[in-house]
Amino acid sequence: MKHLEYFHKIEEQLKEQIKEEGNIEKAAQYCAESIRAGRLVHVFGSGHSQMMAMEVFYRAGGIVPINALLLPQYALFPHAELSTHQERVENFSNHYLHMEDVDERDTMIVASVSGRNAGVIDMALEAKKVGMRVVALTSLSFSKSVTSRHSSGKLLKDVADVVIDIKCDPGDAAMSLEGVNTKFAATSNVLGVTVMESMMARTIEINQEHDFDTPIFLSSNLNEGDETNSKHIKKYRAMLSNL
């Protein structure tokens, strides 16, 4: 049955992601260094990949100095089709970056399953111009099956310092069924969110190894959550535009 097959597919792809441990380690080292320097880790994605950025921002159990670049032009609301158009437009996201508190000591994480669209490539290139280290979350099998929509001819994987392969299939959908002409049941966000959370967990561990306490949000639904989180928000509000 397809619902059980989907679980098995996710399990299979997650096991494949263990092979990315070395790249996740490098990315976590970058993030930890930025946080110890009193700086930020920026996260960006478009369309459904924006969920990977949302997952680690203002999150129960999440690192406080994570700055999610949640541009409404790349969101699925109010009109999903517009996000598809906008993510292909060149010379836009790079300008937005400079509306944020950015520094060469920061780390940029860019999530894009295909890695082909101009918006994510522009963001990665602009972050590198600032001097940031750039981490890409992308599907290498997907990227290798498509061409770039950026004038440079490059894909996201070509411009990042570290590439983490989220291992989803080309086209993202993982299931097929006799009589159904189109594959269905996407896996990218399950895989991408898992990678993001594992990276953040290792970041906290690395900082602890350096005797540095990483600021972490509590769930606001715990009795002590609001009091703890208000202190974090007061400290970081000026740096995190979406708080």
UniProtKB/TrEMBL annotation:
Pfam family, one: SIS_2
Record keywords, A-Z: Isomerase
Gene3D superfamilies hit by this protein: Glucose-6-phosphate isomerase like protein, domain 1
Gene Ontology BP terms: carbohydrate derivative metabolic process
Highest taxon in the source lineage: Bacteria
GO molecular function, one term: carbohydrate derivative binding
Stored SUPFAM superfamilies: SIS domain
Domain SIS: 31-209
NCBIfam families with a match to the protein in the record: PRK02947.1 (NF002805)
Name listed for the protein in its UniProt record: Uncharacterized protein, contains SIS (Sugar ISomerase) phosphosugar binding domain
Lineage: Bacteria, Bacillati, Bacillota, Bacilli, Lactobacillales
